[in-house]
Amino acid sequence: VETTYVESVPEGADAERVLADLAEKGNKVIFATSFGYMDPVIKVASRYPNVVFMHCSGYKTAPNAGTYMDRDYEGRYLGGVAAAKYIKNNLVGYVAAFPTPEVVRCINAFTLGAQSVNPKVKVKVVWTNTWYDPAAEKAAAVSLINAGAGLITMNQDTPSACQAANEKGIFAVSNDSDMRKFAPKAIVTGQIAVWGPYYVKVVKSVMNKTWKPDQYFGGLKDALVELSPYGTFVSADVKKLVEQKKQILMKDDYAVFAGPIKDQTGAIKVKAGEKMTDKEMLSFDWFVQGIEGTIPKQ
User: Fold this and answer.
1) Are residues 93 and 143 in the same domain?
2) What is the distance between the alpha carbons of residues 29 and 67, in angstroms, rounded to a whole number?
3) Alpha carbon 154 to its chain's center
4) 3-class SS of residue 270
5) In this structure, is residue 46 part of a structural domain?
6) Structural domain for 24, as ranges
7) Whether residues 158 and 265 fall in one domain
8) pTM confidence score
Protein backbone atom coordinates (compact mmCIF):
# COMPACT_ATOMS: atom_id res chain seq x y z
CA VAL A 1 0.00 0.00 0.00
CA GLU A 2 1.33 3.42 -1.01
CA THR A 3 0.08 6.62 0.56
CA THR A 4 0.08 10.19 -0.72
CA TYR A 5 -1.37 13.26 0.93
CA VAL A 6 -2.08 16.91 0.25
CA GLU A 7 -2.25 19.41 3.11
CA SER A 8 -3.94 22.80 3.65
CA VAL A 9 -6.51 22.38 0.87
CA PRO A 10 -9.14 25.17 0.90
CA GLU A 11 -12.76 24.12 0.82
CA GLY A 12 -14.66 24.60 -2.44
CA ALA A 13 -13.21 24.58 -5.96
CA ASP A 14 -9.68 23.85 -4.78
CA ALA A 15 -10.88 20.77 -2.91
CA GLU A 16 -12.66 19.48 -6.02
CA ARG A 17 -9.51 19.99 -8.09
CA VAL A 18 -7.27 18.18 -5.58
CA LEU A 19 -9.68 15.26 -5.20
CA ALA A 20 -9.88 14.82 -8.97
CA ASP A 21 -6.10 15.05 -9.27
CA LEU A 22 -5.65 12.32 -6.65
CA ALA A 23 -8.09 10.10 -8.53
CA GLU A 24 -6.35 10.77 -11.85
CA LYS A 25 -3.02 9.75 -10.31
CA GLY A 26 -4.37 6.30 -9.51
CA ASN A 27 -5.28 6.53 -5.84
CA LYS A 28 -7.95 3.91 -5.15
CA VAL A 29 -9.10 5.15 -1.73
CA ILE A 30 -9.33 8.86 -0.96
CA PHE A 31 -10.06 10.26 2.50
CA ALA A 32 -11.37 13.83 2.66
CA THR A 33 -10.94 15.12 6.18
CA SER A 34 -12.92 18.35 6.53
CA PHE A 35 -16.68 19.03 6.65
CA GLY A 36 -16.43 21.54 3.81
CA TYR A 37 -15.16 18.88 1.40
CA MET A 38 -18.56 17.17 1.35
CA ASP A 39 -20.01 18.50 -1.91
CA PRO A 40 -16.69 18.28 -3.79
CA VAL A 41 -16.42 14.62 -2.72
CA ILE A 42 -19.87 13.81 -4.11
CA LYS A 43 -19.15 15.63 -7.36
CA VAL A 44 -15.78 13.98 -7.94
CA ALA A 45 -17.02 10.54 -6.86
CA SER A 46 -19.59 10.61 -9.66
CA ARG A 47 -16.77 11.08 -12.18
CA TYR A 48 -14.58 8.29 -10.79
CA PRO A 49 -16.89 5.34 -10.00
CA ASN A 50 -13.97 2.93 -9.51
CA VAL A 51 -12.42 5.02 -6.73
CA VAL A 52 -13.64 4.82 -3.13
CA PHE A 53 -14.11 8.16 -1.36
CA MET A 54 -14.51 8.54 2.39
CA HIS A 55 -15.60 11.89 3.82
CA CYS A 56 -15.08 12.79 7.47
CA SER A 57 -17.94 14.46 9.37
CA GLY A 58 -20.35 14.80 6.44
CA TYR A 59 -23.74 13.26 5.78
CA LYS A 60 -23.92 12.72 1.99
CA THR A 61 -23.12 9.36 0.43
CA ALA A 62 -22.93 7.84 -3.06
CA PRO A 63 -22.39 4.30 -4.41
CA ASN A 64 -18.62 4.85 -4.08
CA ALA A 65 -18.61 7.44 -1.27
CA GLY A 66 -19.13 6.84 2.43
CA THR A 67 -18.81 8.96 5.56
CA TYR A 68 -17.06 8.48 8.85
CA MET A 69 -16.89 10.38 12.11
CA ASP A 70 -15.82 9.86 15.68
CA ARG A 71 -18.29 10.28 18.51
CA ASP A 72 -16.25 13.31 19.50
CA TYR A 73 -19.01 14.43 21.81
CA GLU A 74 -18.10 11.58 24.19
CA GLY A 75 -14.59 12.97 24.62
CA ARG A 76 -15.89 16.50 24.89
CA TYR A 77 -18.37 15.43 27.59
CA LEU A 78 -15.60 13.78 29.60
CA GLY A 79 -13.46 16.88 29.09
CA GLY A 80 -16.25 18.91 30.65
CA VAL A 81 -16.42 16.52 33.60
CA ALA A 82 -12.66 16.81 34.12
CA ALA A 83 -12.72 20.59 33.77
CA ALA A 84 -15.56 21.29 36.21
CA LYS A 85 -13.35 21.48 39.30
CA TYR A 86 -10.98 23.93 37.61
CA ILE A 87 -13.49 26.50 36.30
CA LYS A 88 -13.21 29.89 37.98
CA ASN A 89 -16.33 32.06 38.19
CA ASN A 90 -18.45 29.13 36.90
CA LEU A 91 -17.86 30.51 33.39
CA VAL A 92 -16.16 28.72 30.48
CA GLY A 93 -14.97 30.52 27.37
CA TYR A 94 -15.40 28.38 24.24
CA VAL A 95 -13.46 29.33 21.09
CA ALA A 96 -15.36 27.73 18.21
CA ALA A 97 -14.43 27.48 14.54
CA PHE A 98 -17.53 27.16 12.34
CA PRO A 99 -21.18 26.56 13.32
CA THR A 100 -21.27 23.05 11.84
CA PRO A 101 -23.31 20.30 13.53
CA GLU A 102 -20.02 18.73 14.68
CA VAL A 103 -18.89 21.84 16.54
CA VAL A 104 -22.34 22.58 17.99
CA ARG A 105 -22.53 18.97 19.19
CA CYS A 106 -19.16 19.30 20.91
CA ILE A 107 -20.05 22.59 22.62
CA ASN A 108 -23.26 21.05 23.93
CA ALA A 109 -21.53 17.88 25.12
CA PHE A 110 -18.80 19.79 26.96
CA THR A 111 -21.42 21.96 28.65
CA LEU A 112 -23.48 18.95 29.77
CA GLY A 113 -20.35 17.24 31.08
CA ALA A 114 -19.33 20.23 33.18
CA GLN A 115 -22.89 20.78 34.39
CA SER A 116 -23.15 17.13 35.47
CA VAL A 117 -20.56 18.03 38.14
CA ASN A 118 -21.47 21.68 38.71
CA PRO A 119 -24.96 22.73 37.50
CA LYS A 120 -24.01 26.41 37.86
CA VAL A 121 -21.52 26.26 34.95
CA LYS A 122 -22.24 28.47 31.97
CA VAL A 123 -20.40 28.47 28.64
CA LYS A 124 -19.81 31.59 26.54
CA VAL A 125 -19.15 30.95 22.83
CA VAL A 126 -17.14 33.08 20.40
CA TRP A 127 -16.91 32.07 16.71
CA THR A 128 -13.66 32.55 14.77
CA ASN A 129 -14.94 31.32 11.38
CA THR A 130 -11.64 29.55 10.75
CA TRP A 131 -10.16 26.16 11.56
CA TYR A 132 -6.62 27.45 11.56
CA ASP A 133 -5.67 30.99 12.49
CA PRO A 134 -3.48 31.14 15.61
CA ALA A 135 -3.81 34.91 16.01
CA ALA A 136 -7.60 34.93 15.69
CA GLU A 137 -7.97 31.97 18.05
CA LYS A 138 -5.78 33.59 20.69
CA ALA A 139 -7.56 36.92 20.37
CA ALA A 140 -10.92 35.18 20.84
CA ALA A 141 -9.64 33.41 23.97
CA VAL A 142 -8.27 36.65 25.42
CA SER A 143 -11.61 38.39 24.79
CA LEU A 144 -13.41 35.61 26.65
CA ILE A 145 -10.97 35.76 29.57
CA ASN A 146 -11.41 39.54 29.73
CA ALA A 147 -15.17 38.92 29.85
CA GLY A 148 -14.74 36.76 32.94
CA ALA A 149 -14.15 33.25 31.61
CA GLY A 150 -12.39 31.12 34.19
CA LEU A 151 -11.45 28.26 31.86
CA ILE A 152 -10.90 28.08 28.10
CA THR A 153 -11.71 25.30 25.67
CA MET A 154 -12.05 25.20 21.90
CA ASN A 155 -12.77 23.38 18.63
CA GLN A 156 -9.73 24.63 16.72
CA ASP A 157 -6.62 23.15 15.12
CA THR A 158 -3.94 25.09 17.01
CA PRO A 159 -3.09 25.40 20.72
CA SER A 160 -3.32 29.21 20.64
CA ALA A 161 -6.45 29.45 22.80
CA CYS A 162 -4.87 27.16 25.39
CA GLN A 163 -1.70 29.24 25.30
CA ALA A 164 -3.76 32.33 26.10
CA ALA A 165 -5.18 30.52 29.14
CA ASN A 166 -1.68 29.46 30.17
CA GLU A 167 -0.45 33.05 30.00
CA LYS A 168 -3.46 34.37 31.95
CA GLY A 169 -3.13 31.81 34.72
CA ILE A 170 -6.32 29.82 34.14
CA PHE A 171 -6.97 26.28 32.99
CA ALA A 172 -7.90 24.91 29.56
CA VAL A 173 -9.20 21.80 27.79
CA SER A 174 -7.59 21.06 24.42
CA ASN A 175 -8.91 19.48 21.23
CA ASP A 176 -7.82 16.75 18.79
CA SER A 177 -4.23 16.30 20.05
CA ASP A 178 -2.08 16.33 23.18
CA MET A 179 -1.25 20.04 23.51
CA ARG A 180 0.33 20.00 26.99
CA LYS A 181 3.76 21.03 25.76
CA PHE A 182 2.28 24.29 24.45
CA ALA A 183 0.41 25.14 27.65
CA PRO A 184 1.81 22.91 30.43
CA LYS A 185 0.35 24.87 33.35
CA ALA A 186 -3.12 25.14 31.83
CA ILE A 187 -4.27 21.98 30.08
CA VAL A 188 -6.44 19.63 32.14
CA THR A 189 -6.94 17.10 29.33
CA GLY A 190 -8.57 17.05 25.88
CA GLN A 191 -10.50 14.96 23.39
CA ILE A 192 -8.49 13.13 20.73
CA ALA A 193 -9.39 10.80 17.86
CA VAL A 194 -7.29 7.74 17.01
CA TRP A 195 -7.90 7.36 13.27
CA GLY A 196 -5.11 4.98 12.26
CA PRO A 197 -6.77 1.61 12.93
CA TYR A 198 -9.97 2.75 11.23
CA TYR A 199 -8.12 3.84 8.09
CA VAL A 200 -6.38 0.45 7.92
CA LYS A 201 -9.74 -1.29 8.29
CA VAL A 202 -11.27 0.72 5.43
CA VAL A 203 -8.34 0.10 3.09
CA LYS A 204 -8.41 -3.64 3.81
CA SER A 205 -12.16 -3.74 3.11
CA VAL A 206 -11.56 -2.09 -0.28
CA MET A 207 -8.76 -4.54 -1.04
CA ASN A 208 -10.89 -7.59 -0.22
CA LYS A 209 -13.96 -6.09 -1.92
CA THR A 210 -16.18 -5.97 1.16
CA TRP A 211 -16.33 -2.16 1.40
CA LYS A 212 -19.78 -0.54 1.44
CA PRO A 213 -20.77 3.16 1.40
CA ASP A 214 -21.70 3.18 5.07
CA GLN A 215 -21.93 6.07 7.50
CA TYR A 216 -19.56 5.09 10.31
CA PHE A 217 -19.83 6.71 13.75
CA GLY A 218 -17.29 5.28 16.22
CA GLY A 219 -16.63 6.23 19.81
CA LEU A 220 -15.00 5.30 23.09
CA LYS A 221 -15.94 1.64 22.93
CA ASP A 222 -14.38 1.43 19.45
CA ALA A 223 -11.12 2.96 20.77
CA LEU A 224 -11.60 5.76 18.24
CA VAL A 225 -12.18 8.44 20.90
CA GLU A 226 -9.83 8.95 23.84
CA LEU A 227 -8.73 11.61 26.28
CA SER A 228 -5.24 13.05 26.06
CA PRO A 229 -2.99 12.63 29.13
CA TYR A 230 -3.96 14.69 32.16
CA GLY A 231 -2.02 17.72 33.33
CA THR A 232 0.26 17.00 36.27
CA PHE A 233 -1.98 19.04 38.60
CA VAL A 234 -5.16 17.01 37.97
CA SER A 235 -6.26 15.31 41.18
CA ALA A 236 -6.96 11.62 41.70
CA ASP A 237 -10.61 12.28 42.58
CA VAL A 238 -11.18 14.05 39.24
CA LYS A 239 -9.57 11.17 37.34
CA LYS A 240 -11.75 8.69 39.25
CA LEU A 241 -14.94 10.62 38.43
CA VAL A 242 -14.03 10.84 34.73
CA GLU A 243 -13.38 7.09 34.66
CA GLN A 244 -16.78 6.42 36.22
CA LYS A 245 -18.48 8.56 33.58
CA LYS A 246 -16.41 6.92 30.86
CA GLN A 247 -17.63 3.46 31.85
CA ILE A 248 -21.22 4.64 31.39
CA LEU A 249 -20.45 5.93 27.89
CA MET A 250 -18.58 2.74 26.99
CA LYS A 251 -21.87 0.91 27.45
CA ASP A 252 -24.12 3.51 25.83
CA ASP A 253 -23.13 5.79 22.94
CA TYR A 254 -26.30 7.82 23.51
CA ALA A 255 -25.94 8.56 27.23
CA VAL A 256 -24.52 12.07 26.72
CA PHE A 257 -27.70 13.36 25.10
CA ALA A 258 -30.25 11.52 27.23
CA GLY A 259 -33.25 13.53 28.37
CA PRO A 260 -34.42 15.65 29.89
CA ILE A 261 -32.42 18.29 28.02
CA LYS A 262 -33.51 21.91 27.62
CA ASP A 263 -32.35 24.43 25.03
CA GLN A 264 -31.24 28.01 25.73
CA THR A 265 -34.83 29.18 26.05
CA GLY A 266 -35.71 26.54 28.63
CA ALA A 267 -37.81 24.51 26.20
CA ILE A 268 -37.57 20.73 26.47
CA LYS A 269 -35.73 19.38 23.39
CA VAL A 270 -35.15 15.83 24.61
CA LYS A 271 -37.82 14.40 26.89
CA ALA A 272 -37.08 12.37 30.00
CA GLY A 273 -36.56 8.74 29.08
CA GLU A 274 -35.58 9.61 25.50
CA LYS A 275 -32.18 9.93 23.81
CA MET A 276 -31.06 11.78 20.69
CA THR A 277 -30.56 9.61 17.62
CA ASP A 278 -27.46 9.62 15.41
CA LYS A 279 -29.41 11.53 12.78
CA GLU A 280 -30.36 14.21 15.28
CA MET A 281 -26.82 14.49 16.65
CA LEU A 282 -25.37 14.75 13.14
CA SER A 283 -27.66 17.70 12.39
CA PHE A 284 -27.37 19.58 15.73
CA ASP A 285 -28.49 23.20 15.30
CA TRP A 286 -29.39 24.34 18.83
CA PHE A 287 -27.59 25.05 22.09
CA VAL A 288 -28.38 23.46 25.46
CA GLN A 289 -29.37 25.54 28.45
CA GLY A 290 -26.48 27.38 30.06
CA ILE A 291 -24.73 28.37 26.82
CA GLU A 292 -24.36 32.06 26.03
CA GLY A 293 -24.13 32.81 22.32
CA THR A 294 -25.93 32.21 19.05
CA ILE A 295 -25.48 29.82 16.14
CA PRO A 296 -24.96 31.84 12.92
CA LYS A 297 -26.81 30.68 9.84
CA GLN A 298 -24.54 28.79 7.45
Assistant:
1) yes
2) 13
3) 9
4) strand
5) yes
6) 13-71+194-222
7) yes
8) 0.94
